[in-house]
Structure formats: C-alpha cells, structure tokens
C-alpha cells in the first residue's frame, strides 16, 4: 500500500499517512509557464495498491486537474489498483438538471475520474448520496457524523434539538437526532440567488432548547445564518452549527460573526482559513480516512466506521 497526495490538502494527507503507519510518497508537481500541470511520482508504484488523496476545494479546477493527472501518471506507472481518496468532492452541488440548459457536473467529474484510470473512490459526505450511482466503479462513502457526534456528546447539552436548515437535509438531521437521542426540527427556506437565502417557516418546537443546525457543507453561510435567525425568534436557548465541509468565504465568516450561532463545528476535510474572533471547532477525520484506507487495502468491511 502507498499513499500520494497533490497540493489540494497536503496537511490532511500527512495526518492520514501517519495514522495508517505508512510514509507519504514523494510526488513532484510543477506548473509550466502557461499554467499547465506537470506531475512525476518519484517512488516506484508498480504493482502497488495506491491511494491518491486530494480534496477538490478552494481552487476546484486546479485541484481536480491535478488529481486526474496524478491518476493517469499512476496508471501508466503500472499501479495495481488506484483509489481516489476525495474528502471533499467538488462540483457535487450540480447533481441534476433543475433548469433548462444546465450541466450535471457531478456526473461529468465522475466520468473524468473513471476515464483517467481510477479503480475505486473513497469520499466523505457527498452533497447528494445519489452521486455514488454516477460511478461504474466501487464507491466507499464515509460520514463525518461519528466524529462530530462524539464531540457533541462530550458537551453534555440537555434538551437538544437537531435542526435541518432546509428540507433537503432532513435525512442527515434524522441520523444525527437518533445518534444524539435528540429532538428534530426543520426550517423551510427559499433561495434568492447563489449567496442569499430567506428562511420563512419552522416545523418543530425549539423554545428553551439547545439547538444544533446540521449540514454537509457551508460556504457563504446564508442557509445556516437565515435558519439561526428563525430559531432565535422561536426562543431557542442556544444555537450551534455543524457542517462536514467548511468552505467559508470572507462573506460567510462575517455572516457567522453577526449571527446568533455561538459555535461552528466542522472537520479538516478541506484546508481551514483564519476565523478572526468567531469560535470554530475543527475535528480531524484523518483517523477515519486512514482506517477506511487500511480496511479497503485488506479487503475488510468499512461499515463499522459508520458507528459512533
């Protein structure tokens, strides 16, 4: 077994390699003057079970192309099996045609990964679970919930209610509520544009309760902050948010600082930025991913990783 990584999130790849008790392979990645990417895997990978770690975030076009080129290089170097380890799967938002003349980019990325030579995919908290069906190769889909739920249990929050910030997240909220033994509520929202959201109704009782908003990702924090304002009006005792992938922009951080949300719980699936004075708890998923990699390599089940 060998692990290599691109420049998408090297710090996480190093933590994964340490947890898996292997040495991260040396890869030379350069840019030609015109911006083209050059990749050379310096270690011998012939006949090896190779895992390529790359989060497709922040600069998704650059990091996706890097990943595809690394996969192609590994295939041409005669790696026995190539597993793309993508803690954050970029372009996952576009998973269906919801208006005329738009692409299904999540499927396009799946096609590109398979065409480049990937034999298997390991991902975490895909934006939509049906993306697994876009692949004609095996997909192992992990969840950050066990890591986040363990932290939330340690906070000993009484009268806890898990809140989905939109109707699409009800399945995730239901899973969290069962693991935490908490109540459940949902916020109805209307999206005005890519960055602005209006939350207009709440289903469930949150008065006097500690609440936790759960979502798979956040970038501009429009959905979370709009839902939080509605929870505050409904009399919630405290409001926290948990998001598996934090892609926050400057606008998102400013929104969180001005919102009633007192803490954001997230993971290191993508590189984290400066938070100024806002309280953010970053939990590592390196052990979870390393365990999955070792289990895949040894042909063992990964279903035990879904438990807290």
Features:
Rossmann fold, 308 residues, 2 domains, alpha/beta
Assign the CATH class of the largest domain: Alpha Beta
Cross-sheet strand order for the largest sheet? 10-9-8-11-12-13-14
Number of helices: 8
What kind of sheet is the major sheet?
7 strands, mixed
Tell me, briefly, the overall form. Answer: globular
Proportion of helical residues: 25-40%
Query: What is the average of the pLDDT values?
Result: 93
Q: Tell me the count of domains.
A: 2
The count of strands amounts to: 14
What distance separates the N and C termini?
27 Å
Structure in a nutshell:
The protein has eight helices and 14 strands.
How would you describe this structure to a colleague?
This protein is of the alpha/beta class. The protein has 2 domains: 2-143 and 287-306, 3-Layer(aba) Sandwich (Rossmann fold), CATH 3.40.50; 145-284, Rossmann fold (3-Layer(aba) Sandwich). 30% of the residues lie in helices and 27% in strands. It has helices at residues 10-19, 60-76, 105-116, 145-154, 170-180, 222-233, 250-258, 286-297, and strands at 2-5, 27-31, 37-41, 49-53, 81-86, 120-124, 139-142, 160-164, 183-191, 197-203, 210-218, 238-246, 263-267, 280-283. The protein has a 7-stranded mixed beta sheet with strand order 10-9-8-11-12-13-14, sandwiched between helices. It has a 5-stranded parallel beta sheet with strand order 1-4-5-6-7, with helices on both faces. Strand 12, helix 7 (250-258) and strand 13 (263-267) form a beta-alpha-beta unit. Helix 1 (10-19) crosses helix 8 (286-297) and helix 4 (145-154) packs across helix 5 (170-180). It is globular, with a radius of gyration of 20 Å. The mean pLDDT is 93.
